[in-house]
Amino acid sequence: MAKTTNDMTKMMQDMMSAFPVDASAMQDAFKSSAAFGEKLSSVALEAAATSTEISSKWTKDTIEKATALTKVKGEPTDYTKAMTDFASAQAEMTAEHMAAFAEVAKKVQMETVELMLAAGKDFSEEATATMKKATADVTSAAKKAAAAK
Q1: DSSP state letter for 70
Q2: DSSP state of 75
Q3: Do 147 and 72 form a contact (C-beta atoms < 8 A)?
Q4: Which of 1, 88, 90, 99 has its C-alpha lying 20 to 30 A from 114's C-alpha?
């Protein structure tokens, strides 16, 4: 039984050595994947930073408007006017800031699509080159094996 295992091991070693593996293709694929991840992360982090700035501005603007709302008024109707002005300003700020968020989302979407298209093109080119090289290597190894018989 041990002899059969040794024979099988030897056969697998011979077979694997007859078909060389190009480790550089794996390294290139890893580097491409890491570069793609870096670009995608950059898009996400930039969007997060911009969204945070928009939220911060919105909060500051709201606090500024609320400060005016809390001041003591001379007449009861002034409170109504202050509330109306605050509600109107809030509606305007909401529309303005939601549009800014939409722009961020649109930019992220466009950049992501561009990255995906570029990555697909790069992957296709790399896969084609790798397959051509692998085919040439296997053909060469097969010819050497046939000549050795």
Answers
A1: T
A2: S
A3: no
A4: 99
